[in-house]
Amino acid sequence: MVSFSSRKRSLRLRFVWFVLLCLFSTPLFALSIDVSGINNPVAPNGFTYYRIVVGNTDGADRTNVMVTAPVPEHSFFSEANALPATDGSCSVSSCQFGETAVWNLGNLSDGDSKVITVPFRVASSAPADAELALTATVTHDGDSVGQSATYTTTVKVDPVARVSLSSKKQVIESGATSRYEVSFGNISASTLLDAEVAVTLPADVTFASASDGGTLSGNTITWDLSNLSANAGGKRFFTVTSDGGLEDGAVLAFSSVLRSEGSDVAQAKESNVVRNNVGLTLDVTTIGDRSQPDDLIYYRYVVANKGVTDLADVTLDMMVSERTVFQEARTAPVTTSSCSISTCQPGEWGSFAIG
């Protein structure tokens, strides 16, 4: 009896130690990473845009932060058109399938964040329904394994619809109310039946309002579009309030989808970074957002320093979207970038030296 009791106690102690070991060996990740995308689905020879957001909410500065991303099959991108540019890790000026793009971001202070924007070109030979999964991994000194995130874009030979999701501000404060816009369009020759657009909210925000009868169920806002005619489109708006007490560097990810008869026909994702007491702000307004081919669309960018410290060497970078171009000489002020020709093409960046 004594021997059996001792053995039973020994097994119980081992079980407790095993549970404690499992609990205390769970890794606490220092850096967060999110990958979002625009233009999903994408046609062969078209552009799809990925944005990688890295945030530090660890309470400690991190050194030698590096992001790596293998190039998905059936796609490539120009290293010079990524912002920031890669460290020259690809064999030629364009990163091809089978190569891994590398961004050495240096040190990332507690509460800081970094954003990488990459315009990928889809190969003209890409087959229908091919999935372009971009997986980005962030590492730093002391963590060689890192954290990863993935966003997948699907190839469609003839996409039937587009949806985009954008916020008024890319950097938001904790406890602040922010406004978002969902744009959608039917680019096919047929009516999309029983159409609806939906947005899924992250856990760290509270729903405030939605335009045009949008309804909230759980963490999803849905707008009933009824039947969406060929070449028709529209916009919907919603506002949310981020939770108070969110740490600087936190990343909030929103996703949107356009459906027809219960099937997804277009998707998009948007990410915001939390940062309090931001002095430098950027506001964008558009004139002529509904235009015909060969028409002009006018964008106005307002940069303001609302802080108490003078800022030097401020630069505004603007990436040219698909199916648009602009002439560098016709901007005011003139850009300081060097596009491939005098007219900046899709995927290229126009840079403005603010001062």
From TrEMBL:
Query: What name appears for this protein in its UniProt entry?
Result: DUF11 domain-containing protein
Q: Which domain of life is it from?
A: Bacteria
- The DUF11 domain, residue ranges: 32-145
- State the organism of origin: Tamilnaduibacter salinus
Family annotation (InterPro entries): Chlamydia_OmcB, OmcB-like_DUF11
